[in-house]
Design a protein that fits this description.
By secondary structure, this protein is mainly alpha-helical. The protein has one domain: Up-down Bundle (Four Helix Bundle (Hemerythrin (Met), subunit A)), CATH 1.20.120. It has helices at 3-18, 38-56, 66-101, 104-109, 113-129, 133-153; strands at 158-162, 170-174.
Length: 175
């Protein structure tokens, strides 16, 4: 460190003691303006796919060998862990968009906005707790509704296209 920068650092340290800096509050963590519901949609489709795989997983016979039981439990554990991780990711992605992107003007324009997020968050929790395909499909649907509202606030016309994922379903894109 040069003598000049050391002197400047000392001055700032003294200034901080004499007049401590005040906290600064921002609208969001980093007001970059880059938000997109795509990850929430992919995660919701992943929850659906894991529930499909859990439902398709053949249960071991009563007289199954230990290695067959072990393989079954290993797959079930992996599918469940991935499902729970992606359900939480849905919630995370939605919280960021809800808390950092949407404004009071958006709520005036779309009066059901808060209810849509509330329902999606509750469905993500329900899908995480169970393995019902209906819950996972409802989660996908609610996330798609939010994506449609999101793109409308950006001035885009949302469209649905096949996801082309093994879970099936659609993805909402801006047009």
């Amino acid at each position: 460190m040069s003598a000049r920068s050391a002197l400047a650092s000392a001055r700032f340290a003294i200034a901080d003691i004499v007049a401590p800096p005040r906290p600064v509050y921002a609208h969001c963590d980093i007001p970059c303006g880059i938000y997109d519901p795509h990850e929430a949609q992919i995660s919701a489709l992943t929850v659906l796919r894991m529930d499909q795989l859990i439902g398709e997983l053949p249960k071991p016979a009563a007289a199954a060998k230990p290695e067959e039981l072990e393989a079954y439990h290993a797959k079930l554990s992996r599918y469940t862990a991935v499902k729970e991780s992606h359900a939480e990711r849905v919630k995370h992605e939605l919280r960021v968009i809800w808390g950092d992107y949407f404004t009071a003007d958006h709520v005036k324009q779309f009066p059901t906005l808060h209810e849509s997020f509330w329902n999606a968050m509750k469905l993500a929790s329900k899908a995480r707790q169970g393995t019902g395909l209906a819950d996972a499909q409802a989660l996908v649907g609610h996330v798609q509704q939010i994506a449609e509202i999101f793109w409308k606030t950006k001035g885009a016309t949302p469209r649905r296209a096949p996801s082309l994922q093994k879970s099936g379903g659609e993805i909402v894109y801006p047009a």
